[in-house]
């Protein structure tokens, strides 16, 4: 991998703590593997409490001077970081494909997407406006200012090793926070490559650290118990989100939580079926089904059910599974064997209760963690996939008759992140869009992620929003000054 990079220094075996690149020395390490080949890429330092604390101390120290700069100065650094990410997009994508498995073109897409958050928040850095409120008494003047929360600690998952961090570090640094990142142990190399470029862009020592560790619970405990950390920002499962919120409760830390989803994807009988199939393909199979906004339950109205199923199966059969570096590959491996087992369990549970496999259904002939893209028909609410996120390449098709019933089914979940539907009737479009209890509704589209819109969930899918003009709010405190004149 290193030899194939235009800039080999982007691939590192060191962590980035308090402005220093630290090797493992004689300390413990953990390996990072390529999930397509099983080959080890590199060993990284397995850091612990003391290193996390060092990063937090340095962040606290550096944050004050960073916040004291003007928005325009911080914007210039972030803009430079963005430019470097774009200039090195191919290398960043290669590192991402190697550690995570997604096809190179998709990895490149993620790099551009991640970079777009750095660009967006570079722009927003200059626009952290307050307010002037007319006084409540003749001698009173009321001014509202927004200030950075301070030191932010971040924990992110492996499915978007670049973008999940970019969406957090962009707004945090833009408004003057310092940032300590704990990337997923499966995919820390993309985070470290970003840090190499951040340092080059002029992010001051200590403002950004990347703490690599195989024990996320250890680092998580330090993040949540260290009083210098004012905010925890997390993307991952609802289960781990609960743990972090519980741990944060002790010090009433602010939290932003981007948690699990269980996205419904509804196809009404007035939908453009070809467009719906195309949307379902992107929503369901992007990243091999490993995103929190992937369609998890596909509801198709009875009149178009068979036609939709047939078109979807035809599209799925054109997918090419393989190593993400191979030409024409649309779908990489799953992240690990546990992911394969969960997919198998969901398929076995569904078929055991009467669902039929329309295509796929088993491990791929390539072996490893490759899995066949799968479509299930005749899926019913009694099956596990109705309540749990599969996080894999399985499209379960439910049949429904009427609008009110499908809305009730779509909302019958603890989750509320993304939802999708395809319909043409204007009245129906408004009714359904307003009735879905989700933070995001894709209407006649299967792709909803962009830096210009607020991404986030309701119910047990989390709190806070990432991206858009609202994205800075998660990293700001509101202060109101009441002046008597
Ligand atoms: P995923 O299925 O994406 O791995 P998780 O919620 O399990 O979802 O993990 C998301 C991130 O949270 C990963 O970086 C993981 O290492 C981390 N993590 C898992 N358990 C804990 C914990 N108890 N405390 C802090 N972080 C954790």
TrEMBL record:
Keyword DNA repair included in the entry's annotation: no
InterPro entries, per the entry: Ald_DH/histidinol_DH, Ald_DH_C, Ald_DH_CS_CYS, Ald_DH_CS_GLU, Ald_DH_N, Aldehyde_DH_dom, Aldehyde_DH_Superfamily, Succ_semiAld_DH
Single GO biological process annotation from the record: gamma-aminobutyric acid catabolic process
Single GO MF descriptor: succinate-semialdehyde dehydrogenase (NAD+) activity
Active site: 258
Keywords recorded for this protein, A-Z: Oxidoreductase
Aldehyde dehydrogenase domain sequence ranges: 21-480
Keyword Transport set for record: no
Record's signal peptide: none
Gene3D superfamilies: Aldehyde Dehydrogenase, Chain A, domain 1, Aldehyde Dehydrogenase, Chain A, domain 2
Pfam families: Aldedh
TM spans (from-to): none
Annotated GO CC locations: cytosol
Protein family membership: Belongs to the aldehyde dehydrogenase family.
PANTHER family per UniProt: SUCCINATE-SEMIALDEHYDE DEHYDROGENASE, MITOCHONDRIAL
Protein name: NAD-dependent succinate-semialdehyde dehydrogenase
Organism: Thermohalobaculum xanthum
């Amino acid at each position: 991998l290193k030899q194939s990079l235009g800039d080999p220094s982007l691939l590192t075996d060191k962590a980035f703590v308090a402005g220093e690149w630290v090797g493992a020395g004689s300390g413990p390490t953990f390996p990072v593997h390529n999930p397509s080949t099983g080959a080890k890429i590199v060993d990284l330092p397995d850091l612990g409490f003391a290193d996390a604390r060092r990063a937090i101390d340095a962040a606290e120290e550096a944050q004050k001077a960073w916040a004291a700069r003007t928005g325009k100065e911080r914007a210039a650094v972030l803009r430079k970081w963005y430019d470097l990410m774009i200039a090195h997009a191919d290398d960043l994508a290669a590192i991402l494909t190697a550690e995570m498995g997604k096809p190179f073109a998709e990895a490149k897409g993620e790099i551009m997407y991640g970079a777009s958050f750095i660009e967006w928040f570079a722009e927003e850095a200059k626009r952290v406006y307050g307010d002037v409120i007319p006084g409540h008494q003749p001698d009173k003047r009321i001014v509202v200012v927004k200030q950075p929360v301070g030191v932010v600690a971040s924990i992110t998952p492996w499915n978007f090793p670049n973008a999940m961090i970019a969406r957090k570090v962009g707004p945090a640094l833009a408004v003057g926070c310092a940032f300590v990142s704990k990337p997923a142990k499966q995919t820390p190399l993309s985070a470290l490559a970003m840090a190499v470029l951040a340092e080059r862009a002029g992010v001051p020592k200590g403002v950004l650290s990347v703490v690599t560790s195989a024990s996320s619970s250890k680092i998580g405990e330090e993040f949540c118990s260290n009083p210098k950390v004012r905010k925890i920002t997390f993307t991952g499962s609802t289960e781990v989100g609960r743990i972090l919120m519980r741990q944060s409760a002790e010090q009433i830390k602010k939290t932003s939580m981007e948690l699990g989803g269980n996205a419904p994807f509804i196809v009404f009988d007035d939908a453009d079926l070809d467009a719906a199939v195309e949307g379902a393909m992107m929503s369901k199979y992007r990243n091999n089904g490993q995103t929190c906004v992937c369609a998890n339950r596909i509801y198709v109205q009875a009149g178009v059910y068979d036609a939709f199923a047939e078109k979807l199966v035809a599209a799925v059969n054109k997918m090419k599974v393989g190593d993400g570096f191979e030409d024409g590959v649309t779908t990489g491996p799953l992240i690990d064997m546990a992911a394969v087992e969960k997919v198998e369990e969901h398929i076995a549970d569904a078929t055991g209760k009467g669902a039929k496999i329309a295509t796929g259904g088993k491990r791929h002939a390539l072996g490893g963690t490759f899995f066949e893209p799968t479509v299930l028909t005749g899926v019913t609410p009694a099956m596990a996939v109705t309540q749990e996120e599969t996080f894999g390449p399985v499209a379960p098709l439910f049949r429904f008759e009427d609008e009110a019933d499908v809305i009730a089914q779509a909302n019958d979940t603890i989750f509320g992140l993304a939802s999708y539907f395809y319909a043409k009737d204007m009245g129906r479009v408004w009714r359904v869009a307003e009735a879905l209890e989700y933070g995001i509704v894709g209407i006649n589209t299967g792709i909803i992620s962009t830096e210009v819109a607020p991404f986030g969930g309701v119910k047990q899918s989390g709190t806070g929003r990432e991206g858009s003009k609202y994205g800075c709010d998660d990293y700001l405190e509101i202060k109101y000054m009441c002046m008597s004149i």
